[in-house]
Every structure is written in structure tokens, then in C-alpha cells.
Amino acid sequence: MARKKIALIGAGNIGGTLAHLAALKGLGDIVLFDVVEGIPQGKALDLSQCGAVEGFDAKITGSNDYADIAGADVIIVTAGVARKPGMSRDDLLGINLKVMKAVGEGIAANAPDAFVICITNPLDAMVWALREFSGLPHNKVVGMAGVLDSSRFNHFLAEEFQVSAKDVTSFVLGGHGDTMVPVIEYSTVAGIPVPDLIKQGRSTQERIDAIVQRTRSGGGEIVALLKTGSAFYAPATSAIAMAEAYLGDKKRLLPCAANLTGQYGVDNLYVGVPVIIGKDGVEQVIEIELNEEAKGNLQVSVDAVKELLDACKAIDPSLA
Ligand SMILES: NC(=O)C1=CN([C@@H]2O[C@H](COP(=O)(O)OP(=O)(O)OC[C@H]3O[C@@H](n4cnc5c(N)ncnc54)[C@H](O)[C@@H]3O)[C@@H](O)[C@H]2O)C=CC1
Ligand SMILES: O=C([O-])CC(=O)C(=O)O
């Protein structure tokens, strides 16, 4: 059987980490693409030289030519710019929208059958725009944010309850911004709902509320520490989990930015919801019962994403 091909558009911090993880996990041969000459080639050579130590034999190449992504099974897009302290993700919209146009056209022309995972921020607007520019089916274009945000929430909850993060599950829904919606009612430690753990006196509502807030500003906390860019290890790990779900037809139920067609009362917009990922890409959007507070919070988040889509349409009328 032919090896799978993984194309990474953007060979920066996340792109390089994605390539490393994909090679270590044996997902397939890897093409790192970037507009900057030398960066993808240099990273590809460096990563290839891990193979003899790690025992992997993936072919890793760097390129500045979209023709080299031809036939890719999975494409992960991180092309664009990351924020610096003092900026919001939304401040990246103007510059990254132009990047999404180039990337969408490159994918459409060279790898229209790929499963495309977008990471570039502001995520919900960029994945929507990338889908529009590429013209690929909606089920084959998905955004990564919820896996990362839930993983952050799980990490903080694991610290709070002093348990392994492996035993914590949660859903963070909505847009990947300050309005994201960590849902406490669906957060558990080995199946025990967090509200029950609060009742047992293992934490307090105030402490959990502070964790929700820390999760919401989890990206900004790292930006403030790094000063030169944003998080990249956990974002890369999260996207690789989504790629593995597709390549292995795993039917994983993950929170991802998916196109909604009426679910949650939302139409024609990408936002974070639980989805099943398998060989057909986003195979199902799962609707979960939300209490009134979570419903209201999700609506606020959806409205924030809508505003970003309007901003995209104002910048590029071809999207209107
Ligand atoms: N969705 C999420 O949860 C997360 C999203 N992000 C976002 O991911 C993006 C990438 O982050 P990093 O890898 O840290 O940034 P980075 O700056 O290290 O890498 C971005 C790369 O994109 C390249 N690039 C720029 N324009 C391009 C184009 N037209 N075509 C191809 N490549 C192009 C740059 O040369 C650079 O190598 C940012 O927008 C960041 O905000 C970051 C973390 C989490
Ligand atoms: O905060 C940022 O700019 C990067 C990001 O989306 C995250 O780490 O969640």
C-alpha cells in the first residue's frame, strides 16, 4: 500500500512541530511548504536526520512550490502570522485572510481530495474563508481549536483535582477566542461529572469558574510568556490527533470548528462543536443538550464569529 502523504502549509513553529510528530508517529511522507525560501528545506533536512536515531524512514521534503503538495491525503494549514503580546487573534484577520486565499487556491489546484485541517487564526473565520477559497466539500475542511482548548481545560482540571490529565474529559465549544465556551456539565474525571465533584467538596464553584476563565485566556497566557509568538506544542499535538482520526477512520468524537447547517440553530458558519472524524472527514456534527447559560454563551460566541465573517467579506468582496 502506498504511503500516506501529509502536506504542511506553513513551516514555522507549529509546522515544524507537526512534521516532527508526524514523522515520529509514522503517519506518512511529509512535505513542508512555506513562502520563505530555505526554512522548509532546512527544517526538512534537520528532521530527516532524526530518522536514523528514532528509526523512522518517512521522506521529509521542504518546498516553496505548491506542485509538491500534489496527492496529499492530509493538509494542515498554519500559514500566516501569529500574534504578539498586546494583540488579539482578531488583529490577524486582515493579513491572514490574504494568506488563506493563496493557500486555498494552491490546495484546489494541487490536492483537491485532501482532508484539510486549518489552524491559522482567527481560526473560525480563517477556516471558513479557506473553505470558500478552496471550494472543497465542507466535510473535508475543518478547524483545529476545540481539541486544544479542551486539552488546556483538562490540564487545569487535572491539576485542581490532583489526578492524571488522562482521566479528565471536557468539551470547549464556540469560537476560538475570548468567548469560547468550556462546558462544565460535560466535564468529568473518569466519568464523574465536575459538578458532582464540587458537591463532594473536592473543589468549589469559584475555583472552577477561575479555571474556565484561565482556559478562555489560555492562548494569551502563553503569548505573554513567550513574547515572540504563540503556543505551538499543544496546538500541533491537537491537530495530529485530528489527522490520525481521519487517516485511521477512528470515528473520534472531538470538538472542532465545523460548518453548521442548522445544528445549534446556526447556519453556514464554522464554529467549535463536537464532531465525529473518520475516513469521510467530518462525518457528523453531534448536538448536545446545553443548559440556558451555556446556550446563551454559545450564542455570544457565534455572534462574535459572525462579525469576523462580515469583516472578511468587507475586505474581500468575492466572499460575500
Ligand atoms: N487554532 C489554534 O488553536 C491555534 C492557532 N495558531 C495560529 O497558527 C498560526 C501559525 O502559528 P505559528 O506556526 O506559531 O506561526 P509562525 O510564524 O511560526 O509560522 C507561520 C509560517 O507561515 C509562513 N507563511 C506566511 N505566509 C505564508 C503563505 N502565504 N504561504 C505559506 N506560508 C506562509 C511563514 O513564513 C511562517 O513560516 C498563527 O496564525 C497562529 O495564531 C496558533 C496556536 C493555536
Ligand atoms: O493565542 C494565540 O494567539 C494562539 C492560539 O490560538 C492559542 O494558543 O490558543
Automatic annotation (TrEMBL):
Catalysed reactions, as listed in the record: (S)-malate + NAD(+) = oxaloacetate + NADH + H(+)
Keyword NAD: yes
Domain (Lactate/malate dehydrogenase N-terminal): residue spans on this chain: 5-143
Residues the record marks as active site: H176
Source domain of life: Bacteria
A Gene Ontology molecular function term of the record: L-malate dehydrogenase (NAD+) activity
Binding site for NAD(+): G10, A11, G12, N13, I14, G15, D34, N96, I119, T120, N121
Sequence positions that bind substrate: R83, R89, N121, R152
Ranges of residues in domain Lactate/malate dehydrogenase C-terminal: 148-311
EC assignment: 1.1.1.37
This protein's record includes keyword NAD: yes
Top-tier EC class: oxidoreductase
InterPro entries, per the entry: L-lactate/malate_DH, Lactate/malate_DH_C, Lactate/malate_DH_N, Lactate_DH/Glyco_Ohase_4_C, Malate_DH_type3, NAD(P)-bd_dom_sf
NCBIfam families named in the record: MalateDH_bact (TIGR01763), PRK06223.1 (NF004863)
Family: Belongs to the LDH/MDH superfamily. MDH type 3 family.
Protein name: Malate dehydrogenase
Species in which this protein is naturally found: Sphingobium xenophagum
